[in-house]
Amino acid sequence: MDFLNILKAVFALSIVLGLILGLAYVLRRYAPQVMARLQAQRGERRLKVVETLVLDPARRLVLVRLDDEERLILLGEGRELIEPRLKPAPRPAPTAAATKPASPPVSQDDDLF
């Protein structure tokens, strides 16, 4: 390779690196405003991360709100565990025997007089 080819390669490399650095500067400078505008156009979001708790390096708990409902999710070790939606169990209807207080049992030892 002669000196002219090496000089062309170095010049081309400096132009490519300059373009990459210039693009990085522009993205750092203007990307947050663009992203904020895009999110404002999207409107109110339904899904929100309320809180995150790191249990250990492999696992974390995430509390997520979807509409008016919160879910607890355990993330880690290549799997997710989502707390099932629990509905309160229906209470049984009170029966006549349950509403009437039971009288205490009478033993024969009570009759001393």
Protein architecture, described:
With 113 residues, the protein is α+β, with helices and mostly antiparallel strands. The chain has two domains: 1-43; 45-85. Helix content is 39%, strand content 27%. The protein contains two helices and four strands. It has helices at 3-42, 96-99, and strands at residues 47-56, 59-66, 69-76, 79-82. A hairpin with a 2-residue loop joins strand 1 and strand 2 (59-66).
Indicate the structural class. Answer: alpha+beta
Tally of separate helices? 2
Radius of gyration: 35 Å
Uncertain stretches: none
Compressed to H and E, one letter per element, the order equals HEEEEH
Largest sheet data: 4 strands, antiparallel
Subcellular location: Bacterial flagellum basal body; Cell membrane
GO biological process, one term: bacterial-type flagellum organization
Protein name: FliO protein
Keywords: Bacterial flagellum, Cell membrane, Membrane, Transmembrane, Transmembrane helix
